[in-house]
Write the structure tokens for this entry.
Amino acid sequence: MSKKIDVPIYWKNPYQKEIQANIISVKGTSIQLSQNLFYPGGGGQLSDTGSIIIDSSEYSVVDTNKNESGIWYKIDTKDEGLLQKNQDILLKLNWKRRYSFMKAHSAQHLVSHLLEKICNCDTEKANFEEGKIEIIISEKISLEQCINVLEEANALISEGVEVISIIVDQETYRKDYLEQARGKESHEENVRLIQLGEKGLDLTCCGGVHVENLSEINGIFLESLKEYTLKLYVDKQGMTYANLQRKLMIELEDITTKKGSKLLEMINNKIEENEILEESNVSLLKMIFNKIKVWSEKINENNIILLSLPEIERQAILASLKELENDVFVALLGRNEILYIISTDERLSAKEIVKTIIDKTGKKGGGNPAFAQVSVKDIDKPFELVKSILTS
Ligand SMILES: [Zn+2]
């Protein structure tokens, strides 16, 4: 014998934007209503906000939450007499925000499904902002695997796969759904499942709000993949982000073909600001070394480059050396006021220049003809010193 299940509107019709209701209880500035339209939060998805209209005045609903006694709406008012039991009101959803969460949350179902299918990787946790998803995964995956997941996700979005809501009692769930469902087991009296596609591409227990068709998501875009955290953008926010990233790349490409210190300044600022990983320093140095001649000045027919990169360390330089252009002489002032001399110009020996600096200053250092280093702590203008040695 199955009991009749009381299905909330945010499950039955997640596209409904407003509803007439009656205040059934009041506690401070929080109220309970005869009809519930707002999602009270859960499963990483934030609760709905919006407004209520009482006697043609509009008040913000700043939060919605659920406890044993039901769903409570927190109203932004200082007027204690405003909220009265039995009062008729109109409840209006902040639709832009809700729809954005519906898209992001549905996108997460799709990505979590593909992460399991392609990478054998579970979703530990998911967090949402408008147009943004953060997924904590159980295994580290490669960037390439991640791109494969997103490619397949976007293909299914283009196909227009349906998102189907199934609500059954616990007994039916155990009998017909438990075995094939992804993710955590439900112990609720009534179980709500979300299925992607008619044939059951993905099936998982979820009480959140979703779009009816994956095509509404429009697209999923990668922001970052670090350790166990995958960050994604969806829909318009994703497209804007992708275009901004491309703009940055084009600007960078433009700058690197020009002579000047702009790119270096920019890179340095970024390194300082974001504490970019050592790995990224290597990539940046490789990029600089690869096009380094654009910053060179001629001293005695030699290509001389003087670089100040105060966050760069010896290890990063060594890892990037292969990329250095031929016939250049680089003096790079790195972390802890260490001056690195790197030479791909047979006429100029890094070892000899460093030896001269040591003779002149009494500092410590050494190296070979291609790569040498010396401390320049407390030396006023190390580059001037290098230049004077080169010109003499
Ligand atoms: Zn869901």
